[in-house]
Amino acid sequence: MSASAEVGEVLAGKYRVERVLGAGGMGVVVAARHVTLGSLVALKFMIPSALDVAGAAERFIREAQAVARLRGDHIAHVTDLGTLDTGAPYIVMEFLDGADLDAVIRVRGRLPVAEAVEYMIGTCKAMVEAHGAGIIHRDLKPHNLLAPAIF
User: pTM here?
Assistant: First the structure.
């Protein structure tokens, strides 16, 4: 497997990649369909080069375990955790249809105050739950916030 995933590739023997949703320096997130159940999920996995970073895989696994405890309406729920054939850990989350808030702002420009406040209220609710569980996001920005599918 390369630093990304190919459409049609089956990961962990059960998740067929439908499209790449995003990629960063340490990992990739794909939309994938469970080959037996047919459910659509978001699957996040570490890229091979990130496995060389001391402690990165352990932090990734701890992230999944911590987020799996959260149940709020404004947080993607974790449903599975495992290891790919490459040795890279992966996290399976519910697939949430939409665009990131950064994309919404680029398309629409400045948002009406009432709408921006709604996004921030949802973000604050998620952060209250996360902080209450001892989780600090560390990368909170519009690109990492989901907006509704229709904007």
Answer: 0.86
